[in-house]
Amino acid sequence: MADTKERKLPAPAISPETQAYWDAAGKGKLLVKKCTACGEAHHYPRPICPFCFSDKTEWTEASGKGTIYSFSVMRRAPVPYAMAYVTLAEGPRMVTNIVDCDFDKLKCDQPVKLVFKPTDGGPPLPMFTPA
Amino acid sequence: MSIKGKAYIAGIYEHPTRLAKDLSLAQIHAEVAKGALEDAGLTKDDVDGYFCAGDAPGLGPMSMVEYMGLKVRHVDSTDTGGSSYVLHVGHAAEAIAAGKCKVALITLAGRPRAEGMATGTVPRSRGGTPTPDEPFEFPYGPTVVNMYAMCAMRHMHEFGTTSEQLAWIKVAASHHAQYNPHALLKDVVTVEDVVNSPMISDPLHRLDCCVITDGGGAIVVVAPEIAAKLKQPKIKLLGASEFIKTQMGGKVDLTYSGARFTGAAAFAEAGVKPADIKYASIYDSFTITVLMQLEDLGFCEKGQGGRFVADGNLISGTGKLPFNTDGGGLCSNHPANRGGLTKVLEAVRQLRGEAHPKVQVKNCDLAIAHGTGGSLGLRHGSATVILERE
């Protein structure tokens, strides 16, 4: 059983356009940007929709539910970790880690739920664990 | 306007080194430039177009044009990672067709091995102003190998591809590398050797990965009237295409690469089909890279790549599609962690009939070279060229 306990996570570099995302992460919420013009949600968040180029995008709170699209356990790291793409219930797939689990039992399309892990001096990172 | 028939590859050179402790980065660029110009029968004063990518020191063309004492009227430093140099061949042809230059020099060099770079297994931040994706990726620990591994994991999940099938790609490369005196890994390996090598990041083993080497290479692309006066066999560019594939705002699909688009476009421009290709240089940062590109370029149906590469089908002399007959990035050379340029070099050797006799494809008159740069699992550039011996 490996988890992120000993792994030091670097703080994300925060820019003005993503400040709200990280402020919400600090409160245990995952935000997804949604475009009110075309209705599409996207990730990573941008002020201008990457699908229709409208600037009418707004922050919405994700349910925290998702499935593993793909993953890989980095065995050669000092503390092995599971890199992953998770497909959010809201649609977008995001780069993340799967934590607090037996890495050898992970599978594509497996349901997962949101957790947050602290970083080194920055806001916590949204990650996922088997649901 | 098409570039078909508008430009020829007249000179090539691959640096023999795989560990360049005593060479500077600029020096390697200049040595490969000199080698390719001599191969073409041209001099540096003939060069009027210069192409390089992010591996070049300083401000790319400005630093290297000065260092090499060039006088050029056209430069292009488009950087799409390891695919840059395949893309540069296409851009050079465009520039030549537009009358912007007649002799285009493309160089690549790097020293990741001498510098002790942890190429594939440590997350890398580019430093400076973060890219927009960086806060949402870098803290999670994306590396070169684990992001390609995620493509392999999903491919296995959707199509039933196996580690043994992927291993056949390394096996084929090793069969070719045994004849290349400069190859870093010259030993022939078996499927068992590959799947029993240490797991780096599931499902990719150590032998699913390419080598890390220093060195470089260069290509000289010339106008038809220049090619007509030179001694080398005439290698004509028939088609070229490039594409950037991204995460598409969260609609990322790891099962295909940009080769789906560049292959279709390059084949259409060339007026040939995958079945016409006698030799294929396919970017081989990892075994999964090759498998996905073969599918996407149209050599087999999507999802059938595992069956296509199995049982030695990529081995020259026995397989249906001889690939990377120099040993490729998987066994011979992956200079600067950028394997696109050497893909073009071996395609040209095959078309000239200059490959090692043990791996030379008979009557090799049509070849493809394809590059992937960046990260197949995050965002990548693809570039394809189709070349013909005239």
What do these coordinates show?
The complex is a heterodimer of chains A (131) and B (390). With 131 residues, chain A is mainly beta. Chain A is 6% helix and 37% strand. Chain A has one domain (16-130): OB fold (Dihydrolipoamide Acetyltransferase, E2P). Chain A is built from one helix and eight strands; from the N terminus they run H-E-E-E-E-E-E-E-E. Chain A is globular. Chain A starts with 18 loop residues before the first helix and ends with a strand. The mean pLDDT of chain A is 95. Helices cover 32% and strands 18% of the residues of chain B. Chain B has twelve helices and eleven strands. In chain B, a hairpin with a 2-residue loop joins strand 5 and strand 6. The longest helix of chain B has 16 residues, at 25-40. Chain B is globular. The interface between A and B is large, with 46 and 39 residues.
CATH homologous superfamily classification of chain B: Thiolase/Chalcone synthase
Strand percentage of chain A lies at 35-45%
The run of helices and strands of chain B is EHEHEHEHHHEEEHEHEHHHHEE
For the biggest sheet of chain B, the summary is: 9 strands, mixed
Contiguous runs where pLDDT drops below 50 for at least 5 residues of chain A: none
